[in-house]
Amino acid sequence: MGTLLRNALVLLLLLTAVTGVAYPAVVGGLGHLLFANKAGGSLVERDGKVVGSSLIGQTFTAPGYFWGRPSATTPDPYNGGASSGSNQGPSNPALTEAVKQRIAALRAADPANTAPVPVDIVTASGSGLDPEISPAAAEYQVGRVAAARHMDAGKVRELVAANTKGRQLGALGEPRVNVLELNLALDAAAR
Fold this sequence. Notes:
- By secondary structure, the protein is mostly helical.
- It has 2 domains: about 1-40; about 40-190, no CATH class.
- It is about 50% helix and about 10% strand.
- The chain has a 3-stranded antiparallel sheet.
- Strand 1 and strand 2 form a beta hairpin.
- The radius of gyration is 22 Å and the shape is elongated.
């Protein structure tokens, strides 16, 4: 019995060292070596200061900025430590009410806009961290952003187009616009 326990303990320590220390160190080291920006969180800097990550959404509420998808994370929006959706299905009255309130807020921010509201700017993503919106969601907001910034709507559309990423590998996913990068491009254009 003593030999069996000793062998089990040795195996436990060996596997802990390999799978709990060595493997994560090698994989993490290779990640930092080969993909330094992504492994470091894809941080975005402006004027030497970190302003966010291109992988995690942020809350923008000023009329002169594009707004991203709502976040269902708690206790704060876009909380990377609490990635989750709302778990509210389409028949849930709470989701219906939340969407109605979000649509009302969008309409109040831009009363002249009578276009249909794209679904992705009134519903949270599965992770609650989505940094991107659809080109339709960006187009919906062009008028409000242009008016708030006293910019030509055509110039704002050009910035949206310049910041629109196509499908990955030409076939995967949908075209998308990173909200942080677009808003930083807007700030740079205003300088």
